[in-house]
């Protein structure tokens, strides 16, 4: 008796006056499905064994079998069936006797979550028919032999993404007989960029191979004048990563019924990738202190981060923009949404969408760090995801910006996107989500404003070209860089650019107009400067060049300020001040060098070895001010990686990582990390110290699993030196 009461208790749902069933947002929870569902009183002589009975179900789920091959899911390190929606897959059912279509009746049931409902797409009954309609649920028999039948099953091109439970139901005169719950027949259904009816359909095979199936990528960092790159392991096919990605949607409390929509998935994922306001995956830290966690620069890929979060359910410390973007890219590609990682150089930030970054100057023309609150990021990484946008007018589908780095709140949470790249380019920022913010990140102007004693502001200089100068991503099928700036904006100064700006202003992007009387820049003198490329720990020089295009002689009082900055452009310390008077002869150019010694910067250097230089010059004869600012980076030495012995799948071999300390100091608390998707899971090793000029060597033995071209990625991290990387392409032979 006690048993029946407990099941009754379970079947009673918690009372809630607002909805009949509780919200359904866990892919993991299950409901009890009865093996015998009686139609009424069962007669005494009834024996289920007299009827058609399922003995076994065969899912063709091995990587080399038809389903995973045809659905491009053979790389997933997962024993269960994984298929893509809107495309047929096959299963075989073995019965206790031959199937007789005239008298036997059976159907399939796919269920998800704890409260499956047909109208929500979480309970899907499939009756066997004679034809399959494209993009709609259905099944037909394609082969019969002895007691077995083979079915071809078509899933809907709009169905929910996630893990379904499969049951086979057989109709008898007295009730429905079902198969037992068997987790071996669980089926994952993913987005399908190969299916024309899917919202994420991409028509180019090379692009699908890159944006869905490539499990390593490149992060471009550094700055406009000095673009640097490093590899990142996405690892979307590694063991347990798919389950971890599905868990993120549970964590974000996205209703199961909404999980067929890539727009919704991207929107909630951009919030759950960061830990602000929802205890999401990664905790950001930009302050150079990474106690009780891993420095952002030490990660070599996404797998460790996702798996740690999946097991601990606590935010993983720490990330900065490329870490958020790398993990987001893994999530999107894993679920089958085409995605790529983007870097925007000189990215405007904290811009409350007014297209204006204010840098305040004091009376002498020096930058006033007290008043200046805005910062220009050397670079900022975000993602683009490919999808149709049926919620927007025609023409705004395709690449959408999504950003998991917590910068500004959107609808009350730290998230950003999806925003149509096409809408940003044309200034149509009225279309959801967060287009004005992204428009400002790539289009703001820098205003140099002098504060007069009486509090009035005088605009001395406007730089319209610096922000969003270069927007890049990795090329398809290679490790090179592609400039995609033109996808975000028209050429500076073109008529189309003006029009896009006017459109953006019309749709609510704030742009303060400057009355012509107050702003009259010095047009007959140009000023620029260049920082010499230098290796960390060495001296280098900065050359300032004036070009006097007029017939007048001028003298310019010039201020040079060198700052050590975070890559977000926020200053840690001004380490070099220098002022001089420059004599500018008519119609000629003159250059001035400033030498920067390593002893001036080494003690305060931050991890990305990033400087920010300001040069302001006041033309004494006219009182006008010229201003230029730029970021510069030092060359950071790399790790050397080599392999020893032959590289054959299934055979042990070894890899050697070497590093020589270039600094005039001992490196303390050194950690090395090494990983390679499909080759080896991340290995970490601590080294106490590396004295100056000495070389560290680390040998790791491993057994590559799969043949093909693979990549090894290593990073070194220490108190004084971070962002040290190395990588090696390796060709693994077939055994």
UniProtKB/TrEMBL annotation:
Entries under InterPro entries matching the protein: Ig-like_fold, Ig_E-set, Papain-like_cys_pep_sf, Transglutaminase, Transglutaminase-like, Transglutaminase-like_sf, Transglutaminase_animal, Transglutaminase_AS
Region spans: Disordered: 1-26
Assembly mode: Tetramer of two A chains (F13A1) and two B (F13B) chains.
MF-aspect GO terms: metal ion binding; protein-glutamine gamma-glutamyltransferase activity
Protein function: Factor XIII is activated by thrombin and calcium ion to a transglutaminase that catalyzes the formation of gamma-glutamyl-epsilon-lysine cross-links between fibrin chains, thus stabilizing the fibrin clot. Also cross-link alpha-2-plasmin inhibitor, or fibronectin, to the alpha chains of fibrin.
EC number: 2.3.2.13
Location in or out of the cell: Cytoplasm; Secreted
Family statement drawn from the similarity comment of this UniProt entry: Belongs to the transglutaminase superfamily. Transglutaminase family.
Domain Transglutaminase-like: 313-406
Gene expressing this chain: F13a1
Signal sequence annotation: none
Protein name from the UniProt record: Coagulation factor XIII A chain
EC class name: transferase
Record GO cellular component, one term: extracellular region
Single GO biological process annotation from the record: blood coagulation, fibrin clot formation
Cofactor binding remark: Binds 1 Ca(2+) ion per subunit.
Principal location: cytoplasm
Active site positions, chain numbering: 321, 380, 403
Enzymatic reactions: L-glutaminyl-[protein] + L-lysyl-[protein] = [protein]-L-lysyl-N(6)-5-L-glutamyl-[protein] + NH4(+)
Record's keyword terms, sorted: Acetylation, Acyltransferase, Blood coagulation, Calcium, Cytoplasm, Hemostasis, Metal-binding, Secreted, Transferase, Zymogen
């Amino acid at each position: 008796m006690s048993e029946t009461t407990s099941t009754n208790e379970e079947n009673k749902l918690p009372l809630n006056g607002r909805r009949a069933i509780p919200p359904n947002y866990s892919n993991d929870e299950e409901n009890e499905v009865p093996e015998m569902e009686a139609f009424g009183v069962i007669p005494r002589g009834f024996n289920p064994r007299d009827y058609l009975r399922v003995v076994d179900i065969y899912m063709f789920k091995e990587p080399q079998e038809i389903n995973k091959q045809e659905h491009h899911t053979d790389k997933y390190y997962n024993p269960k069936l994984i298929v893509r929606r809107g495309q047929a897959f096959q299963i075989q059912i073995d019965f206790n006797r031959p199937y007789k279509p005239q008298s036997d009746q059976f159907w399939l049931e796919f269920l998800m979550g704890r409260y499956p409902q047909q109208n929500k797409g979480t309970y899907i009954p499939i009756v066997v028919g004679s034809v399959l309609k494209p993009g709609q649920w259905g099944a037909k028999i394609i082969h019969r032999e002895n007691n077995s039948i083979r079915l071809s099953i078509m899933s809907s091109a709009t169905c929910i993404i996630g893990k379904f439970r499969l049951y086979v139901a057989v109709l008898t005169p007295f009730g429905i007989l079902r198969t037992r719950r068997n987790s071996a027949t669980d089926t994952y259904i993913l987005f399908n960029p190969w299916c024309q009816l899917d919202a994420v359909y991409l028509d180019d095979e090379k692009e699908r191979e890159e944006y869905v199936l490539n499990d390593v990528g490149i992060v471009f960092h550094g700055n406009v004048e000095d673009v640097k790159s490093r590899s990142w392991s996405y690892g979307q096919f590694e063991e347990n990563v798919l389950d971890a990605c599905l868990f993120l949607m549970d964590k974000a409390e996205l209703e199961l019924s909404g999980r067929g929509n890539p727009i919704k998935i991207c929107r909630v994922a951009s919030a759950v990738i960061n830990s602000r306001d929802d205890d999401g995956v990664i905790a950001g830290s930009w302050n150079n202190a990474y106690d009780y966690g891993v420095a952002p620069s030490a990660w070599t890929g996404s797998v460790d981060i996702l798996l740690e979060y999946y097991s601990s359910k606590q935010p993983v410390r720490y990330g900065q923009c490329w870490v958020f973007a790398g993990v987001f890219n893994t999530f999107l590609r894993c679920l089958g949404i085409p995605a790529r990682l983007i870097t925007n150089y000189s990215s405007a930030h904290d811009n409350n969408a007014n297209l204006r970054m204010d840098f305040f100057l004091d009376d002498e023309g020096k930058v006033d760090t007290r008043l200046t609150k805005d910062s220009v990021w050397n670079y900022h990484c975000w993602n683009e995801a490919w999808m149709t946008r049926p919620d927007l007018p025609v023409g705004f589908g395709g690449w959408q910006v999504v950003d998991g780095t917590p910068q500004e709140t959107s609808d009350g949470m730290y998230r950003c996107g999806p925003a149509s790249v096409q809408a940003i380019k044309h200034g149509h920022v009225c279309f959801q989500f967060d287009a004005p913010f992204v428009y400002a990140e790539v289009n703001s102007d820098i205003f140099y404003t002098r504060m007069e004693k009486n509090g009035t502001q005088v605009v001395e200089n406007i730089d319209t070209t610096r922000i969003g100068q270069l927007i890049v991503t990795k090329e398809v099928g290679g490790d090179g860089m592609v400039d995609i700036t033109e996808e975000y904006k028209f050429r500076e100064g073109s008529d189309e650019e003006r029009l896009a700006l006017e459109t953006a202003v019309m749709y609510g992007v704030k742009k303060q107009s400057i009355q012509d009387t107050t702003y009259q820049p010095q047009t007959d003198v140009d000023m620029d400067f260049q920082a010499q490329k230098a290796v960390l720990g060495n001296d280098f020089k900065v050359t300032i060049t004036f070009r006097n295009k007029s017939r007048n002689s001028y003298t310019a009082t010039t201020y040079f300020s060198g700052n050590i900055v975070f890559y977000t452009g926020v200053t840690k310390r001004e380490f070099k001040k220098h002022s001089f008077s420059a004599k500018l002869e008519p119609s000629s150019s003159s250059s001035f060098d400033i030498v920067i010694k390593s002893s001036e910067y080494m003690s305060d250097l931050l991890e990305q070895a990033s400087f920010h230089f300001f040069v302001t010059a006041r033309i004494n004869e006219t009182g006008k001010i010229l201003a230029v600012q730029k970021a510069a980076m030092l060359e950071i030495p790399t790790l050397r990686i080599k392999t020893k012995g032959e590289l054959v799948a299934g055979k042990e071999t070894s890899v050697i990582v070497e590093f020589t300390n270039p600094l005039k100091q001992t490196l303390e608390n050194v950690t090395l990390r090494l990983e390679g998707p499909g080759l080896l899971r991340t290995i970490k090793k601590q080294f106490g110290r590396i004295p100056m000029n000495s070389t560290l060597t680390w040998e790791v033995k491993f057994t590559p699993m799969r043949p093909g071209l693979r990549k090894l990625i290593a990073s070194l991290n220490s108190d004084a030196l971070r962002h040290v990387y190395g990588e090696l392409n390796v060709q693994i032979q077939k055994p």
